[in-house]
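Please check the following for our workbook:

***
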Amino acid sequence: MSNTHTANAAGIRTSESFYLKEEHHPANGTMLGFWLYLMSDCLLFAMLFAAYGVLGRNYAAGPSGADLFDLKLVAINTAFLLLSSITYGFAMLAMYKKQLGKTLFWLGITGIFGLAFLALEIYEFYHLIHEGAGPQRSAFLTSFFALVGTHGLHVSFGIIWLVTLMFQLKKHGLTYENKRRVNCLSLFWHFLDVVWIGVFTFVYLMGTLV
């Protein structure tokens, strides 16, 4: 009886010592997971670019990119997004210098540029649909709205993430966790800039010149 009790007690001690008192989080696990997410997003946009490459000349006797695209408007929109990348870089520099106020300021400017980009993109979509060039008009327009619209949704999610992060920074300051979140959002935001450069070149410039 006593031997059984001793064995049970030893088993309990062994099982108790198996569990960690603190949460186990591998070093750089979050960044690794976020890089994997970005790779999956790369695949998504690669498929959308491929679809546009196949369908981008199927106008169904409708308007082409040369008939629809306003390059001046798109150039302004591109400038907004590229400027937002620069201001995010300033926010990163301020964060590394542990300047919370400047970090929040530059993140706010980044958000304003992002909203300006979205506003012009929504205006462009509204104008195209009003002119009868909606996504159902031709395969070209279907692939165009799918590609540009998906990028716009990503920018929208990025702005929501940015605002949420600013509230976290204001409440908790430049903690290790918040710095990691700022870094993750930086990767996401610059990734969207790179994708947009591809959209601007492959969709708008080439579509206008053809």
